[in-house]
Every structure is written in structure tokens, then in C-alpha cells.
């Protein structure tokens, strides 16, 4: 995409306002087309979504969403709530095939779930105790044909846990590696195909780890200071995966209510950013202060090029009936002229 320097300013700049933010692109506005039912209580509750794609019946695919006070909520693609699994304070969740895992801040565990393709029902499979307290974020991947979960922590640590068997009566997992970064972490995402792990350091930027090397050090993808549109908190991370290893890395820049898009491949060039405005025709409010996100490129009903699920801070105001919004990837592609 052609890059043009654009100054984003208001017509009149208040005396105490922040200076204009120079960006190498113009921020584009898109809309959500579906929203889930809201959380039942007021407060900062909804946090992170995961999209489960049904292997044979795409219309039965699910949105898993964490409630930081009570557990895991399950929604259909229509946004209607299907299940509640009230197992404790879950912060982040991620899914691969018929398995999902969440960071359980209350029990200091990895909480595992199974998804039954025959019934599209989610069940709590069991828990893996952690040696560190307060697991914050989590992501889940398949690296070298093994399931790997990566809880992140506020002290800057990220741990790699191998799920020993996905078909056992209870889950068992083994700690393989610990990676240390300077500041508080939350969002992360595995790039299974390229054996990479992207990690968000909230007050600094985005890192990438080469998982082909057991002693590799994190490399920098982008820093808040670089002026590419990423700001604190650098929260949710997800990937839009295309054929032949192409695609995009998407990051939630929480304080600016925007989503910054990068090339999936090095040197991770920034491709632009979008905000999610109100869809008045469908009665869906704007998205603000997003925490977790998830993206799939698999075609789903109403989403032929895939879907992006994002947490929304409030409906209609902050910390009121927080929920998750679904964005048609076609709108992201068109807004930023992506491949």
C-alpha cells in the first residue's frame, strides 16, 4: 500500500491537548457486523475471545470468551450465548482443533477445555498447576506436531508448556522453556507454520521468538516509540493466515481504540490501522479500549474470507455489558488494500 504522511488533528486543538500524532498512513474506519450477548454484570469482565472453527459444519463454529470474574462464555456465530463454564477467573483463552486453554488467574493454572464436534459443546477437561502466580495472557499453537501453550506473566516471563496428550482422560503438560522480557506481558500468538511466537509487551511493543532455536532471544517487531501507530497498552495479538506463509499480524493498540496491521513475514512492515465505528444500521456500537482479539481466515457463514473477533470495553459505556464484536475480514482487506 502506498504510504503517505498524514497528520491526524482536530479542527481546533485545545491548549492542554496532546500534540498531533504523525503516522505513515491514514487510519481507516470499519464496522462490526455481529456482536455477542453482553456480560451479565457491570465491570471490567470480558477480556479475550477465541474462535473455534467446526471441522465439517462451519455454521456450528463458536466464539469462546473469557469473563475475568467467573469463567468461560460460549457464543454462536450469531452472537447468542450458548454456555457458561463458571470455573474461576479466566483472563485469556485460545483454541486449536478440538482443544482450548485459558489462563486461570484464580487457581494459578492452565485450564483446559474440550470441544465436541458432534454437539458443539464445550467441557472443562482439567487443569495444569503453574509454578508462577497470576498467569495473565495465553496463546496456543501446534509446533512440530505438538500442542504448546504459552502463558504470559506480569513480571515479563512467558512459559512454553507442551500438552503431553490430547486424548487422555485428564490433561498433563510439561514446562519446556521460559523466556524473559523486561516488562508486563499479556497478548501473544503462535505462528505454527513458521515456528514463531509473537508477544506483546504492554508498555513497550511487540517481540518475536524463533522457536526453531531453543536458546533464541526475542527480536523486536515494533516499538511504541517508533511512531507506527502502536501505543500502550499493546494488548491483543492475532494472525490472519494465508496460503504459502503469507498473511498479517494484527495488534490491539488499546489506548487509541485502534488495530495496527503488519506483514506476517519479516521485516513485519506496517500496513496501516483500522478503528471499529458504530454500525447504526445494525444497532452495534463502536469498539473501544479493546483487550483480546482473535482471527481466522477460514470461510464461515457471512464471512467468506474469515472473521476477526475483538473485545469491546462497553455497551454503550465503559465497563457496561462488555462483549465481543465480529468483523468481516473483507472490510479490513478493502480498507487497507491488503492482498
What does this structure look like?
This protein has 339 residues and is mostly beta strands. It has one helix at residues 329-336, and strands at residues 6-8, 21-23, 28-31, 34-35, 46-52, 62-67, 71-76, 81-85, 90-96, 99-104, 109-116, 121-129, 135-143, 146-153, 157-163, 173-180, 185-191, 196-201, 205-210, 219-223, 234-241, 247-253, 258-263, 270-277, 293-296, 307-314, 318-328. A 5-stranded mixed β-sheet has the order 3-24-23-22-21, covered by helices on one side. It has a 4-stranded antiparallel β-sheet with strand order 4-27-26-25. It has a 4-stranded antiparallel β-sheet with strand order 5-6-7-8, with no helix packed on it. A hairpin with a 3-residue loop joins strand 6 and strand 7 (71-76).
Topology:
Blueprint: E1 6-8, E2 21-23, E3 28-31, E4 34-35, E5 46-52, E6 62-67, E7 71-76, E8 81-85, E9 90-96, E10 99-104, E11 109-116, E12 121-129, E13 135-143, E14 146-153, E15 157-163, E16 173-180, E17 185-191, E18 196-201, E19 205-210, E20 219-223, E21 234-241, E22 247-253, E23 258-263, E24 270-277, E25 293-296, E26 307-314, E27 318-328, H1 329-336
Short description:
The protein is mostly beta strands and 339 residues long. It is 2% helix and 51% strand.
Amino acid at each position: 500500500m502506498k504510504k503517505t504522511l498524514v497528520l491526524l488533528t482536530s479542527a481546533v486543538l485545545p491548549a492542554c491537548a496532546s500534540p498531533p500524532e504523525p503516522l505513515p498512513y491514514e487510519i481507516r474506519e470499519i464496522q462490526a457486523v455481529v456482536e455477542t450477548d453482553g456480560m451479565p454484570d457491570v465491570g471490567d469482565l470480558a477480556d479475550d475471545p477465541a474462535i473455534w472453527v467446526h471441522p465439517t459444519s462451519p455454521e456450528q463454529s463458536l466464539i469462546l470468551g473469557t469473563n475475568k470474574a467467573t469463567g468461560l462464555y460460549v457464543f454462536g456465530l450469531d452472537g447468542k450465548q450458548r454456555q457458561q463454564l463458571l470455573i474461576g477467573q479466566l483472563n485469556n483463552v485460545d483454541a486449536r482443533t478440538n482443544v482450548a486453554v485459558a489462563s486461570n488467574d484464580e487457581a494459578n493454572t492452565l485450564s483446559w477445555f474440550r470441544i465436541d464436534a458432534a454437539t458443539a459443546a464445550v467441557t472443562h477437561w482439567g487443569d495444569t498447576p503453574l509454578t508462577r502466580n497470576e498467569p495473565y495472557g495465553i496463546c496456543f499453537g501446534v509446533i512440530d506436531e505438538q500442542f504448546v501453550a504459552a502463558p504470559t506473566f506480569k513480571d515479563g516471563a512467558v512459559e512454553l508448556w507442551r500438552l503431553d496428550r490430547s486424548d487422555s482422560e485428564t490433561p498433563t503438560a510439561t514446562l519446556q522453556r521460559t523466556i524473559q522480557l523486561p516488562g508486563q506481558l499479556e497478548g501473544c500468538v503462535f505462528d505454527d507454520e513458521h515456528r514463531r511466537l509473537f508477544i506483546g509487551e504492554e508498555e513497550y511493543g511487540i517481540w518475536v521468538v524463533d522457536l526453531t532455536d531453543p536458546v533464541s532471544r526475542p527480536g523486536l517487531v515494533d516499538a511504541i516509540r517508533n511512531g507506527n501507530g502502536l501505543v500502550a497498552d499493546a494488548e491483543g495479538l492475532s494472525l490472519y493466515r494465508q496460503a504459502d506463509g503469507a498473511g498479517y499480524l494484527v495488534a490491539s493498540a488499546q489506548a487509541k481504540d485502534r488495530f495496527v496491521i503488519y506483514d506476517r513475514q519479516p521485516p513485519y512492515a506496517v500496513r496501516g490501522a483500522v478503528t471499529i465505528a458504530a454500525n447504526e444500521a445494525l444497532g452495534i456500537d463502536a469498539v473501544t479500549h479493546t483487550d483480546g482479539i482473535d482471527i481466522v481466515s477460514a470461510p464461515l457463514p457471512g464471512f467468506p474470507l474469515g472473521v476477526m473477533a475483538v473485545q469491546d470495553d462497553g455497551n454503550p459505556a465503559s465497563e457496561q455489558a462488555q462483549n465481543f464484536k465480529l468483523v468481516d475480514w473483507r472490510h479490513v482487506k478493502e480498507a487497507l488494500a491488503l492482498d
